[in-house]
Amino acid sequence: DTAGHASGGYTTAAAAAHFVLVPMMAQGHAIPMTDMARLLASTARRGLVVTPVNAARMTGFAAGVEEAGLPVQLVELPFPAAEFGLPDGCENVDMLPSKDLFSNFLLACGALREPLAARLRQRRPPASCIISDMMHSWAGDIARELGVPWLTDIIYRKNLLKSLTDDEIVKVSGFPTPLELPKARCPGTLCVPGLKQISDKIYEAETRSDGRIMNSFQEMESLYIESFERTIGKKIWTIGPMCLCHRDSNAMAARGNKASMDDAKCLQWLDSKKPGSVIFVSFGSLSSTDPQQLVELGLGLEASKKPFIWVIKAGKKFPEVEEWLADGFEERVKDRGMIIRGWAPQMMILWHQAIGGFMTHCGWNSTLEGISAGVPMITWPHRSEQFVNEKLVVDHLKIGVEVGVKGVTQWGTEQKEVKVTRTAVETAVSMLMDEGEVAQEIRMRAKDFGMKARRALEEGGSSYNNIKLLI
Ligand code: UDP
Question: Quick one: how far is CA 262 from the chain centroid?
Answer without folding.
Answer: 23
